[in-house]
């Protein structure tokens, strides 16, 4: 069953942004959707709290902005937001205290409420901050998630915009070794992935391609010396000819559901 987070609105410190010349003053306009962290990764014991800032104007009422967060790709183009996020000034920090929750399996569906307060700026722009009291953890679907923002103005006018992020699960490279073997160097190890069901911490990650990296010393950049594919137990082993010394490490590049990981550096 698809799990969905429905967040109640929380209005926080407002940011001053020039209004588009073509925007009507009485219509809602969504200027930005900033999701932090932009690339959340969940592990075995930790969880991730999203912070979503929506910059809008022409909004009517304390609940004039609604955010829905759910797994799946956006049904339309995402809002193009290029302005960097700045930390709030001393007089712009959000008000109130927010509920805390540890990791655990979420309910199959339901809504999540957050304390709300608001403050407008002189030009009419307002930042609405959404701080859900549920945290993302390994029990939620990995992959693309959609943030749907709906702003409502006076007279019932609405504006909808989308943002997206990838929720990924932690991976781990373990027991990595680099040893001389004949005329080359044997690089071996194991790749593990987070168990999404929670029965174990990490499971063998089979049929995955890992990169074997080499550099002469710390002053040089890393080169891809070879690749290897993990077996049914997540193990890999590869002899790399022609390089007897230097520094070695293994990298798993990750994908849309699994996070990347780098092993520690081994020096020969």
Characterise the protein shown here.
With 268 residues, the chain is mainly β. The protein folds into two domains: 5-168, Sandwich (Immunoglobulin-like), CATH 2.60.40.10; 171-267, Immunoglobulin-like, CATH 2.60.40.10. It has no helices and 18 strands. It has strands spanning 5-7, 29-36, 41-42, 51-57, 65-71, 111-112, 126-130, 143-152, 158-169, 171-181, 184-194, 202-204, 209-215, 223-229, 235-241, 247-252, 261-262, 266-267. The chain has a six-stranded mixed sheet, with no helix packed on it. Strands 13, 14, 16, 17 and 18 form a five-stranded antiparallel sheet that branches. Strands 10, 11, 12 and 15 form a four-stranded antiparallel sheet that branches. A hairpin with a 5-residue loop joins strand 8 (143-152) and strand 9. The protein is elongated and about 80 Å long. The chain starts with a strand and ends with a strand.
Write a brief structural summary.
The N and C termini lie far apart (50 Å).
Summarize the helices and strands and which ones pair or pack.
Layout: E1 5-7, E2 29-36, E3 41-42, E4 51-57, E5 65-71, E6 111-112, E7 126-130, E8 143-152, E9 158-169, E10 171-181, E11 184-194, E12 202-204, E13 209-215, E14 223-229, E15 235-241, E16 247-252, E17 261-262, E18 266-267
Parallel strand pairs: 1-6, 3-9
Antiparallel strand pairs: 1-5, 2-4, 4-7, 5-8, 8-9, 10-11, 11-12, 11-15, 13-14, 13-16, 16-17, 16-18
